[in-house]
Amino acid sequence: MVDATGKLLATDTIYPHQPRNDWQGSLASLAKLVLQHGVELIAIGNGTASRETDKLAADLIKAIASREPERNILKIVVSEAGASVYSASELAAKEFPSLDVSLRGAVSIARRLQDPLAELVKIDPKAIGVGQYQHDVNPYDLARTLEATVEDCVNAVGVDVNTASSALLARVSGLNATLAKNIVEYRDAHGPFPNRAKLREVPRLGDKTFEQAAGFLRIASEAPGANPLDRSSVHPEAYPVVERILARIGKGIREVMGRGEMLKGLSASDFTDGKFGAPTVRDILAELEKPGRDPRPEFKTAAFAEGIESLADLRPGMMLEGVVTNVAAFGAFVDIGVHQDGLVHVSALADRFVKDPHEVVKAGMVVKVRVLEVDIKRQRVALSMRKNDEGRDAQPRASSGAGGGGRRDDFRGKPRADPQPTGAMALALAKLKR
After folding, report:
1. In whole angstroms, what is the distance from residue 434 CA to residue 430 CA?
2. Which own/partner pairs from 383-388 qualify as long-range (CB within 8 Å, at least 24 positions apart)?
3. CA angle (175, 180, 185) in 5-degree steps
4. pLDDT confidence of 348, banded at 50, 70, 90?
5. Which of 51, 269, 390, 413 is a good FRET partner for 92, with 20 to 30 A between their CA atoms?
6. pLDDT tens digits, residue range 255-282?
């Protein structure tokens, strides 16, 4: 159990599945925690027994709703990529020295539902699922590029300095591990930062560091006298520009933020000076129009079909919703909630020719797929995203490579006994013959 800031409140271990099958006891334990702590969200890792645990959560929500109809609890399946790596890391040991490794992983899964970025920065990017080709890249170049990408993401989103961990703060431009630790220790000793200016009192955080980092640090304070600009991406050095804008329209900052109609007709060139040019002023106007905007897309999760929990439940022709877990040169792997990712071959990604699967899909994307073939013996599932596969049993190369994980060689398949192509390949050859 974690609170709104990710602080650990309580832990418990339940045994709803094999070998104990203590379903009712697990429901009772969960209900006690839910009612005690006012739970609003339930995060379920997408690993082993996730579908069974999802059903357990559904039964829990149903039981509580029958007693307290006004209580609205949601359950969401969360990617647990890298959770085990984090739970056994030195950072996790420092955060939770007395907590069992498995419970550390549970805390990570709960927190990444609240803010994925804040939790994922604690994990070596290579452990999150870079893909099978990471071993073909120079290790130094890979590490440097991944680190730069993580830093870009953190700075694009911004960091709430009053809730961020030292691991997240260390990724902010201008800060390092020592300064991040100093910020957290100062916050713990003196309470939340009321404004950005207070950051200057943090040991070893000088003027140059403040200049580099302040624009990426947010202070979401509701205290009387708090400056709303502190929760925006406007840098403190640019506050005088905002004051000139407010003086022009004759309004206060709280009246203007989030109300774009008040900024209509203003020209950026009217507020430039020797320090701030037109591009910077345009950015300030955009931020005033939509303060604190988050560049990340809306959070979406796949709605796995009820009753589809294993390969044996799948049938060719089924339409299912799933989440793309990995993208390779030969296609994309999709989690459809049956413990084994299915493969959408590159030839089945769209109704047109696709040269690079990355043009069509990316990891984390929610997609609709059709089941083409199920091979229970080899634990493989062939899927299609083509709309013209409806009512068609045949499929081209996808059947030779349906499965999750493994090396690329595993998906090349063997020549068919009957070399005659079917499906889209047959149509293409027929056109050539004509």
Report:
1. 6
2. 383/322, 383/334, 383/336, 383/342, 383/343, 383/344, 383/348, 384/344, 384/348, 385/344, 385/348, 385/349, 385/350, 385/360, 385/361, 386/348, 386/349, 386/350, 386/351, 386/424, 387/351, 388/351
3. 150
4. very high
5. 51
6. 888 877 888 878 888 898 888 888 988 8
Q: Which CATH superfamily is domain 23-130 in?
A: YqgF/RNase H-like domain (3.30.420.140)
Q: Which two tokens stand for residue 321?
A: 């919703």
Of the candidates 188, 261, 418, 419, the residue with the CA atom closest to the CA atom of residue 251: 261
Phi, psi of 217, rounded to the nearest 5 degrees: -100, 130
Length of the chain: 434
Residue 218 phi, psi dihedral angles, 5° rounding: -110, 145
Q: Token pair of 313, please?
A: 């439940």
CA triple 387-392-395, angle to 5 deg: 85
Residue type, 258: G
Q: Where are the domains of the chain?
A: 23-130, 242-299, 311-432
Alpha carbon 313 to its chain centroid, in Å, reads 29
Task: State mean pLDDT over 307-315.
Answer: 84
242-299 is classed CATH 1.10.150.310? yes
3 state SS of 370: strand
Instruction: Report the alpha-carbon distance of residue 196 to residue 192 in Å, rounded.
Output: 11
Rg (CA), the chain: 26
Question: And the tokens for 274?
Answer: 């020797």
Which amino acid is it at 381?
Answer: V
Give SS3 for 76: strand
pTM of the model as a whole: 0.62
SS3 state of residue 342: strand
- DSSP 8-state code for residue 297: P
**Cα dihedral 97→98→102→106 (10° resolution):** -80
We find that the CATH architecture of domain 311-432 is Beta Barrel (2.40)
For the beta carbon of residue 321, count every other beta carbon within 10 angstroms.
16
* 343 bridge partner residues: 333, 382
